[in-house]
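This part of the workshop introduces the protein records we will be handling. An example says more than a description, so a record of this kind follows.
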Amino acid sequence: MTDTPTPLNLGWEEWLSLPDLGLPALRAKVDTGAKTSALHATHIETFGPSARPRVRFTVHPIPARHDLVIPCSAEVLDRREVTSSNGDSELRYVIRTRMEIGGEAWPIEVTLTDRRGMTSHMLLGRQALAERATVVPWERFCQPELSYDVYHSATVRQAAPNRALRVAVLSRENNYSTRRIVDEGESRGHTVEVIDTARCYMAINALAPEIHYDGQRLPRYDAVVPRIGASITPYGTALIRQFETIGTYCVNGSAGITASRDKLHAHQVLARHKIGMPVTAFANSPKDTENLIGLVGKAPLIVKLLESTQGKGVVLAETAKAADSVISAFRGLKANFLVQQFVKEAAGEDIRCLVIGNRVVASMKRTARPGEFRSNLHQGGEATSVRVTKEERDTALRAARAFGLNMAGVDLLRSDSGPKVLEVNSSPGFEGIEKASGKDVVSRLYDEIELRARPAPVRRRKGGEVAAPGE
């Protein structure tokens, strides 16, 4: 025989929490005259598959504090017409979530509605009470009181649930990396949409910046994963700046992508942060060819186009005369290039470290095919698992941090004087490194997205008032 829990005594006003929504403290009005419970919610929109739709919304847990916003999501249980006490009817989304009050917890149904202007942002109806509580209508706070102070501490961020997110992948290709991002996100219950960067257009204004796609305004996304091709870098980074203006979390920011794609700029960033790299030189005048070669050292030398990707536009000049010929040819095409020291001891091998957040989550060694100095997989290089040293790991982390990138493929050469950074890739591929290392790197990417897309804690103003982030 199952014991029936002793009903709680509730006053007409009580403190409660909805932990599955990331709301640790709410002051609620207890109203047995109302059948259903209601939560103050704004920006209500559905997403996800039609068979199991979800709803996302924002909650202002503290009345009159519109600067404190908690984003929430839940599975849609129903959509019902609800008549309020003043006789107005409204079609509302219904969710089920766990309520904690007075040391007890049980699931309740809650309707979502805009209760702006109401004293209480939560209404607890008789359906939620069932046989679990009795109401003493002339009392207040029969159960222990909570405090809004919890919203200014890191606790609210750490305890926030892994809510379902709406994620956009900026990509023009249906390749392995894009498919992995979609599949992994959907397996975690998120909604992941692939957006063709070139088909987006922007409404740029101070009050309501927007992004449109195929004739419609894009919805709010919790996170954006940029997978922007080199040919569309300027427009792609402008689009990311627009997402940043709106306030969307972008895995990699526009400034970091722009700097990493320009090889001259990238090497200047590395030099400014005192990160080891092959000696590099750049000049604009054709009269400086001999001096340019002299700055780098003796042949063999690498001559590299600034816009080169996947090993294309990279030439090994084995003699000074060959280097002079390659430089003259590039200048004849009015191409921008740089000259770089050739690290012989690397012997056609480099190390790719994949950095996500503050960790190197996977690494691989790429070996050039016989007769080839470029180890890129697109040039026929072979990838194998490798254990990196602490110095190599630290160098990769410093390089990604120098560009402000949360996800980066950092390519290193092993030289006699320590690791040398060749390139920092802001849109690294996942296929080669997942197969070579055996690591599920896309899962680590979502760990970072889920952490960073959560609401940030707010801080306390002088006098005890809670302040919003950034104030």
User: Anything to note?
Assistant: The chain has four domains: 8-161, 166-250, 279-342, 345-452. The longest strand covers residues 89-101. Residues 456-471 have pLDDT under 50 and may be disordered. The two ends are 56 Å apart (CA to CA).
